[in-house]
Amino acid sequence: MEIFGHMLQALIDPQLVIYLAVGVFLGIYIGAVPGLSVTMAASLLISFTYSWDVLPSMAAMVGIYIGGVYGGSRSAILLNIPGAPAAVATALDGYPLAKKGLAGQAIGITVVQSVLGGLIGTIILAVGAPALAKVALTFAPRDYFLLAIMGLLLIGSLGSDSPARGVMSAAIGIFIGFIGMDSQTGHMRFVIGPSGSLFRTYMTLGVSYVVVMIGLFGMSEALMQLRDLSVKPVKQKVDKIVPGWKNILKYLPLSIRTSLMGTFIGALPGTGGDIAALMAYDHAKRTTKDPETPFGEGALEGLVACESANNAAIGGACIPMLTLGIPGDAVTAIMLGAMYIHGLNPGPLLMKNSADVFWYIIGAMFVGNIFLLIFGFTGIKLFTKIVEVPKHILMPIIIILSVVGAFSINNNLMDVYWMLAFGVLGYIMKLYHLPVAPTILGIILVDLIELNFRRAAVTVGNSITALLTDLVSHPISLVLLVVIIGMSLSSAGVFQKIRAKFPSGAQAKGSKA
Amino acid sequence: MKKRKLEKGELGFITVLGVFSLICLIASMRIFVTAPTLNGEGTVPLITSCVLVVMTLVMLLETRGCPRGFEKGAALGQKARELLQFLFPGMVGPIILYCLVYAVLLSILGFAVSTLIFLFVSMITLNREHKVRSFLISAITLACIMILFQFIFKVQLP
Q1: Beta bridge partners of A181
Q2: String of DSSP letters for A369-400
Q3: Can you tell me the mean pLDDT for A209-231?
Q4: Which residue in the set B27, B96, B123 is minimally distant from A396, CB to CB?
Q5: CA triplet B124, B130, B135: central angle to 5 degrees?
Q6: Residues A353-356: contacts with CB under 8 Å, at least 24 apart
Q7: In a domain, A511, yes or no
Q8: What pairs with residue A189 in β-bridges?
Q9: Quick one: closest CA in A to B46, which residue?
Q10: Does residue A505 lie in a domain region?
Q11: Average pLDDT over every residue of A81-87
C-alpha cells in the first residue's frame, strides 16, 4: 500500500505532474532536433536542478529521458538523421515510409509503440528489478563479448542482400572505433598525422560515433538526394496518424517480444537503447514471414520492433542504476549523478532507505509514458511539412544541421571536418551498395567487443584453449554461443538450403500437384 | 548476392577496400608484435583486419558473372569521364566543393556569415530562380538556428 502511495505521487501531486509533463514535452522536441541529444539535455538539466528538491528534479529527468528517446525517431523518419543513437534503426524503415508520403503514419506508429515499450519496460522494472539486476550481474566478460558478437551478426540483415558487404561495413566501423589511445594500455593505435598537429591530437582521442552517424546518415543522404533534383517532394498523408486498434493488435506479439528484449538489453550495463533497437530490428526481420513491405523499404514491423525496444530499454537501464548504482547508459549515468547531488545513495539500499524516491521514479515512468501518448501526437502535421520542402531549400539546411550537430558534441571544428568526410564516404558506400548502418553498429559495439574479449582472455591466462573451454562450460555463455551459431547459419542461408533440399510432405505434395 | 549489373567503378571501389584492408592488416600486425598475447592491444584489430581482407575477397567473388558497368573495350579517358559523371552527377560535385569551402570559412568568418553565404550560394546553385526569396530563406534559417541553439539551448556554435 505504501508503495502505491509513493507511485501515486506522480499522478496526484500537481507540481510533480507539471515537471514531468514539461520534461516529456521538451524531451520530444529536443530529441527531434539533430544535434540536441537526450544526454546533453539531461546534463544541462542537472545545472538547473541543483537547488530543486529531489522529486521535482527526478520528474524532469525522467520526462526528458522518455520524451527524448522517442523524439529521436522524428528526424530519423523525416530527414534520415537519427535525432538520438537509439533511433538509428528507426531510420532504416521510417525514412522510406516518409519518401512514400507516409511520414504521418510512421510517426503515429512510433508514438504508440514507444508508449507500449515504455510501459512494458516500466512494469518489468517495478516487478523484477532486484531479480533482473542479479541476472545481469552474473554476466561475465565472455558473455558480454558473445552478446556483442550477436549484435554484429545483425549486420547480415541490415540493408544489404549480401551478408559479406554487411560484415565488411561493420568491420570498417570497428576499425574506426579502434582509432586513438587504447584505454587499457595507453598505446596509440592507428593514429596518423604530423606530430603535434591538430589532426593527430584529434585522432588520439578517437572519433565520436555520433560524428560518424551524422555524416553517414544525414550528410550522405543530402548528397544522395541531390543526384536527382527533378524528383518532386512527396505530399505527406496526415489524415490517419493514430493507428487503429486492429493495427496495434496485429503487431502486439512483436511489440511484446521486442519490448522484453529491449528491457533485458537495456539492463546490461554499457548497452542501451541503440543496441536494443538494432537487435530488435534484426529479430523482427528474422521472424516476420512475408512482411507487406520488405524490410528497408518501409516495413512497419521494423518500426514497431525498434521503437518498442528502445523505449523499453529505458526501464531496463534504470534497473542496474536503481538497484546496483551502475548506470545502464549515458542518460542514467547523468541521473545517477543527479541522485548523488541530492544526497541519495543509488544501489541495493535505495529501495530500503529512500523507498519514496525509488517508487516515485517508477510511478513517474508510468505517467511519463501517458504524457508521451498525448504529446507524441502533437506537431506531427508541422513536422511532416519538413519533408515537403523543395530539395533545393531542404538539402542545404540538412547540411547545416549536420554541421551544427557534429560541432555541438565537443565544440570542435575537427568533428565537422570528419563529419563531412564521413558524409562523402557514406555517399560513395551507398552508391556501391555497401550498407552504412553496420558501420555505425561496429563503432557502437567496438568497446563492448574488445574490452570484454581482453578481460575474458585475462581471466583464462591468455590461453585460447582455456577461453574456448570457458565458453562451452558456462550455461549463459553456452546459450549465447548456440544462438550465435544459429544466427550465423541462418544468415548464410543454410536452413533455406536444407529446406529446399528436403521439402516437407505438404510442400512436396503441393509441388507435385 | 543477387546477380545484377555492376555500377561504374564498383570493381575499383572493391579494390580500394582491399588495399585499405591490407594496410589495416599490416598496421594491426605491427601493433600485435609489440604485445603478442590474447589480451594485447593488437589482437582484436588483427582479427578484424583479417575479417576485412576475407570479406573483400568474398565481395570480389560475388561479382563473378555480373555484367560490368563500363562498355567492353572503352578507352581509359572515357571510363574516367563516365565514372566522374556517375559519382558526381548534376549539382553533387559543386555542393561537396561548397561544403569544403564552408568548412574552411567557418574558422575564418565565423558561423553566422559563412552559414549565410553557404545557404544562399547552395540554394541559388540548386535553383537559379527566386534569388531574393533564397536569400530571405537563408537569413530566416540562420536566425532560427541561432535562436534555438545559441540562445534557448545555450549550445555553442562553430
Answers
A1: A188
A2: HHHHHHHTTTTHHHHHHHHHS-HHHHHHHHHH
A3: 83
A4: B123
A5: 65
A6: A355/A2, A355/A3, A355/A6, A356/A6, A356/A9, A356/A55
A7: no
A8: A180
A9: A175
A10: no
A11: 78
* Predicted confidence (pLDDT) at residue A213 exceeds the cutoff of 60: yes
* Chain segment A266-314, per-residue pLDDT in tens: 887 666 788 888 889 988 988 888 888 888 888 999 999 999 999 999 9
**Residue A308 lies inside a defined structural domain of this protein:** yes
Residue-wise pLDDT tens digits, A153-195: 765 555 566 788 888 998 999 999 999 999 888 889 999 888 8
User: What is the rounded CA–CA span in Å between residue A97 and residue A33?
Assistant: 19
Could you tell me the residue ranges of all domains in chain B? 10-87, 92-152
Instruction: Please tell me the total count of domains within chain A.
Output: 1
**pLDDT value, residue A260:** 93
ipTM: 0.94
Domain that holds residue A471: 2-233+243-495
Residues from chain A that touch B2, judged by Cβ atoms under 8 A, are: 161
- Cβ distance A165 to A433 under 8 Å? yes
Closest residue by Cα to residue A34 from A334, A445, A400: A400
Summarised one tens digit per residue, pLDDT across range B117-154 is 999 999 999 988 888 999 999 999 999 989 888 887 67
Are A112 and A66 contacting, i.e. CB atoms less than 8 angstroms apart? no
Is residue A94 assigned to a domain? Answer: yes
Q: Is B55 on the interface with A (CB under 8 A)?
A: yes
SS3 for A189? strand
- How many contacts does A have with B, using Cβ atoms within 8 A? 167
A277 CB-contact burial (10 Å; exposed 0-12 / middle 13-18 / buried 19+): buried
| Helix ranges (DSSP H) in B3-91 | 10-34, 43-62, 76-87
Question: Between chains, do B92 and A392 touch, taking CB under 8 Å as contact?
Answer: no
Task: Please report the sign of the dihedral spanned by the C-alpha atoms of residue A453, residue A458, residue A462, residue A467.
Answer: negative
User: Which comes out higher in pLDDT, residue A492 or A183?
Assistant: A183
Count CB-CB contacts under 10 A for residue A131.
Answer: 12
What is the number of H-type helices and E-type strands within chain B? 6, 0
